[in-house]
Amino acid sequence: xxxxxxxxxxxxxxxxxxxxxxRWVKSKRLRKIAPRLYTSNLTGHDEQxxxxxxxxxxxxxxxxxxxxxxSALEGRPTDSGDIFLTYTYTKQIALPGIxxxxxxxxxxxxxxxxxxxxxxxxxxxxxxxxxxxxARGRCGDVKTLSKMELEERLDRxxxxxxxxxxxxxxxxxxxxxxxxHLEVPFRKLNAMIAALLRTRSATGLSSPVARAxxxxxxxDPARLDLFNSLFTAFTQAELPIRKEVAMTDExxxxxxxFEAYFSNYIEGTEFKISxxxxxxxxxxxxxxxxxxxxxxxxxxxxxxxxxxxxSAPGTFExxxxxxxxxxxxxxxxxxxxxxxxFKETSNRAGETVFVEPELVRGTLLKGxxxxxxxxxxxxxxxxxxxxxxxxxxxxDGNGRIARLMMNAExxxxxxxxxxxxxxxxxxxxxxxxxxxxxxxxxPLIRAMDYVQDFTARxxxxxxxxxxxxxxxxxxxxxxxxxxLRRID
Length: 488
Description:
Elements: E1 8-10, H1 15-26, E2 31-34, E3 37-39, H2 46-52, H3 54-61, E4 66-67, H4 69-74, E5 82-87, E6 91-95, E7 98-104, E8 113-114, E9 120-121, H5 124-131, H6 147-161, H7 163-180, H8 183-196, H9 208-214, H10 221-235, H11 249-266, H12 273-282, H13 290-304, H14 306-310, H15 316-331, E10 348-349, E11 352-353, H16 360-371, H17 378-391, H18 398-412, H19 425-438, H20 442-457, H21 463-472
Parallel strand pairs: 4-9, 5-7
Antiparallel strand pairs: 1-3, 2-3, 4-5, 6-7, 8-9, 10-11
Helix pairs in contact: 5-7, 6-7, 6-9, 7-8, 10-16, 10-17, 11-13, 13-15, 16-17, 17-18, 19-20
């Protein structure tokens, strides 16, 4: 039985092996794809074969080389196919789909890590110093990451591991700088880290994310991308203006009740509608569920307080005070949920990990600044709701607070509120998820436009009339049972 050849075969100075390779090439068991490099894959694309076997190839061709500069930090070739190795001489080697940049420089030190097949990879402190060298030569413009990219990497390290990780990185880089004659890059690195740790002015930083951390308001850049997408979508959407109809005090109270009831139902605080009515309007608190009852009463008190609902926050500090005040009112019966205080530990829902605690204030600030440029009315209301829901600043109660903030914007603008019935829960949550996970704002805009139209049509002249309309619209059914019907 013939030997099965590996996908990559290297030429060799051994005459016997060279003769075998020649025979394999003649018999079409091998084909040459680059100098000193053959493959037994006779049908695959050369670029894919090389990329699949890149590091074994580099280790065999350039044993003892150091994966360095941006390649050490990124762990892969650039999008244009460039990879950078510190070696014993300088040369550029072309492989299918890959340009290997060999750069003469100091070999691996005891701090660098063995990689594979005789390759090494620069330690993180060394890689940062290499990327802060002045770029020279033919590959100088691509071998290093930009200053902004390096600052953002330092910011992510600080977020993940704390300020001590930056200090440790700086100490290790300082020791290496003397050994490798990289004193100038170290001074640049030291200035970056000092600014991020707020022991030096942030004026020298390039990255908005890094500058925000240096000024004490770090934020989540991925969430800012989502906010930008939603903002952009609103610049291209024309949404109806649904004025709030004149209502009696009783009608306002009823609408606030249904808002509180459905908003809590979405979050799993489930009562029969008759039980919720007795809790809110007759103060009948179930003995076995006092906390759940308080959640509904607290949400109702906020939603029915027209004076507070009409006073949309004008400044960021007003916004924070409003969020914390409403959260305290709703969660007051649950001291384990830190009523009125932002979270101190991370939280998540399914696969979605929300904004880290130390980034909450900064991310809310960036979002609030952007909200001021969103068209008042339904667009800004949706934006404010998504901002709070996506940041998730509290341990619990975030969805209720987000929807209250949405309706505060609508009431302030004199527009119809939005209630999200039980039957529409999945439509609402899936629309949020489409933006949160797939950066697609269209489903959320469509869903909120639809459900505002539904709410605007609801008659609130009395409890019985409202209940009849909600029942006919399937509002109380589970999403699996029916679809929401608008009232004509």
